[in-house]
Design brief:
Length: about 475
């Protein structure tokens, strides 16, 4: 058997969102599972759409997610170059084979003439097929005209690694452009030549290419090539599930998720689970588990819905599993500015308290600023609380006075604070949802916080008592 070789072949026309990354990930998993090679190749023959900086961005996206490739434009390899615009001589050579075999010809028509053929077909309510207008005596191809493939229409029955058995008739086969008049090959031609020369064994791409596959099979035959294993992946749908996910639906740059503090391993797990599962209820997979368990025959044929809330949940699950020292190293750039005045030991204590609640790293300032700075007193936190707004200021003030008196001789350990808070419940006759909410607001000025005793222990005696005094002055 041939060594497994897969590839990811994006066009450098913009950023990568989850759809493109999923294609790369599935190709990477197939290669890694088989101990084969994963190749990066740039398909840059459409120069008008190329975006400056896109190549570097694509490389960084793969590397930041840990999808290391074995061959590529920046690292070379035995089949270099890995950029289509640097492989023009190769396409010319394969095109000449087709010309000599009578399977390619120069297109003599102007774009206006071709449009006329198309409009005539529409008027006759017939599908437009270029081969119906194939010239009888085309001129010799000199590179100034498009070069077209001379198709041999036939039916195909094939097995797609994801979509299963598919059958098409000869009516879908047509003459298509191989090389444009600017000398650049079309995708339809270039990717087949590249895959053949680079000995690619598995091709993964979006289901939008299904309709073109019969033409590709016709071209494989004309070139005397064996087609690789083809796997067409279903679309990733928007959150509503009613159309393909696109930039207008909020499809973000994958690097934006990394910049927002989503873990690469969580992103990989989430993207793998869109349209694939191993047949069990398991949702969290290590990278090694994904490599061991992934298979194309478990990729679903229908579209997979993108659910950012599920990504948040999954990222939170990964964050909770991190060792505190590891998490601390990863959040270095996400602390609120006020944290710069505190040492690592204090910040690590704070991080340990909020680790359970952290879903992504850019939440860190929102969850921790009150540990580093005295926030402005916010009367709305009490006025808007369903429980506390039922009581007048004198009652609230009385409970805070009792709290302050109870804390004066505390050692501010978590155990001692817990005992004193529970004793206050008995002394005041109040429920935790009332008394503890009041103390939490007084000591943090935040709508939510970790456990009250843990929070107060980290804040310490002086800051806790000073904040209770400040709240009392407002009441």
């Amino acid at each position: 058997m041939k060594p497994v070789r897969t590839r990811f072949a994006p066009s450098p026309t913009g950023f990568l969102h989850v759809g493109g990354i999923r294609t790369a990930l599935f190709a990477w998993l197939v290669a890694r599972q088989a101990g084969g090679q994963f190749i990066l190749r740039f398909e840059d023959t459409d120069k008008k759409r190329e975006v400056e900086g896109a190549r570097e961005h694509l490389i960084k996206s793969l590397r930041d997610l840990g999808l290391e490739y074995d061959e590529g434009p920046d690292i070379g390899g035995p089949y270099a170059p890995y950029t289509q615009s640097e492989r023009l001589e190769s396409y010319q050579r394969w095109a000449q084979r087709l010309i000599e075999a009578g399977r390619a010809y120069a297109d003599p028509y102007t774009p206006e003439q071709v449009q006329g053929f198309r409009e005539a077909a529409q008027a006759a309510k017939q599908p437009f097929l270029y081969r119906n207008h194939r010239p009888e005596n085309p001129p010799a191809w000199d590179g100034s005209q498009p070069l077209r493939f001379k198709a041999e229409p036939k039916a195909y029955t094939r097995t797609d690694a994801v979509m299963g058995e598919l059958t098409t008739g000869p009516e879908v086969i047509d003459d298509f452009v191989l090389i444009k008049s600017d000398g650049y090959p079309t995708y339809n031609f270039a990717h087949i030549v590249d895959d053949a020369e680079m000995e690619i064994t598995h091709v993964m791409r979006g289901q939008e290419f299904l309709s073109s596959t019969p033409n590709y099979l016709n071209l494989y035959e004309a070139l005397g090539l064996e087609a690789p294993i083809l796997a067409h992946l279903p679309h990733i749908m928007n959150e509503a599930g009613n159309k393909k996910l696109g930039k207008r639906d909020g499809a973000k740059d994958v690097l934006d998720y990394i910049r927002d503090g989503y873990l690469p391993e969580a992103m990989i797990n989430f993207i793998a689970s869109m349209g694939w599962n191993d047949g069990t209820e398991q949702e969290i997979f290590t990278r090694d588990e994904l490599i061991a368990k992934f298979s194309l025959d478990h990729v679903q044929r229908s579209g997979a819905r993108f659910d950012e809330r599920r990504l948040e949940w999954m990222n939170g699950a990964y964050i909770r599993e991190l060792a505190l020292d590891d998490l601390f190293d990863r959040v270095t750039d996400f602390w609120p500015p006020e944290a710069a005045d505190y040492d690592d030991d204090y910040r690590k204590k704070v991080l340990g308290l909020i680790q359970e609640r952290l879903k992504f790293f850019t939440e860190l300032p929102q969850l921790t600023t009150f540990f580093f700075a005295d926030l402005p007193l916010n009367p709305e936190l009490i006025a808007g609380n369903k429980q506390l707004k039922k009581f007048d200021a004198s009652e609230l003030g009385n409970w805070l006075e009792q709290t302050k008196a109870s804390l004066l001789d505390s050692d501010f350990s978590v155990g001692d604070l817990t005992d004193r808070l529970n004793a206050l419940l008995e002394a005041t006759g109040q429920k935790p949802g009332v008394l503890f909410s009041l103390i939490r607001i007084a000591t943090t000025q935040a709508p939510a916080s970790p456990g009250l005793a843990d929070t107060m222990a980290v804040l310490g005696r002086d800051r806790t008592l000073a904040r209770i005094d400040a709240q009392l002055s407002k009441l």
